[in-house]
Design goal:
8 strands, transferase, globular, 10 helices, 189 residues
């Protein structure tokens, strides 16, 4: 994994990238960052939750269909893909110019999920598939967030090394670092 510090080199690569993956734990702000980046860089913004994973009423789309959709998106010349799912890195990473890993502390992700739920509970959230009404986080989802670094980060690193070892990765550990990267790149936030 080729990790970049948040500096001028990272900002330059961000501005030049035509295909960007934004990954990280739920609640960390990756969807908000993705919307800002896609708008500022004039890239088509693809939310994996909205377009790939979910069908109405929280029914998970079959894996084969998920992979077909991702393959079509990845073929395009320009895109920003918002979503982690390391099992699809084999499709996405070979076509990716830059990975942005939103890697906030778990307490911050939990706070973000509760903030999001309080805003959207009982309604449709823009980053989610039609017919998926926001709910209060259940124990399973909270456990996923609490254990994300221990359970999922090693697999993310393994899959990046396997399918995109030469792809630069910018790791953002706070909202301040997100804002700093946008400032360095001269992008609005």
């Amino acid at each position: 994994m080729r990790n970049l510090a948040i500096a001028e080199e990272a900002a330059k690569l961000l501005c030049e990238a035509r295909r960007i993956m934004v990954i990280g734990c739920s609640g960390g702000g990756k969807s908000t960052l993705s919307r800002k980046l896609a708008a500022a860089l004039d890239l088509p913004n693809h939310s994996m939750d909205r377009e790939v994973f979910w069908l109405p009423k929280w029914v998970e789309r079959p894996r084969a269909e998920q992979r077909e959709i991702l393959s079509e998106i990845a073929k395009a010349d320009r895109w920003l893909l918002d979503g982690t799912n390391p099992s699809s890195f084999d499709i996405r990473l070979p076509r990716t110019d830059l990975v942005i890993w939103v890697r906030l502390p778990r307490w911050r992700c939990l706070l973000g999920v509760y903030k999001r739920a309080s805003q959207y509970v009982g309604r449709h959230r823009p980053d989610m598939a039609d017919g998926c009404v926001e709910q209060w986080p259940d124990r399973e989802f909270l456990s996923y967030i609490w254990n994300f670094e221990r359970r999922f980060a090693p697999r993310i690193i393994q899959e990046i090394d396997r399918h995109g070892a030469s792809v630069p990765v910018i790791t953002l550990k706070s909202h301040g670092e997100m804002a700093h990267l946008l400032d360095l790149a001269g992008l609005p936030h």
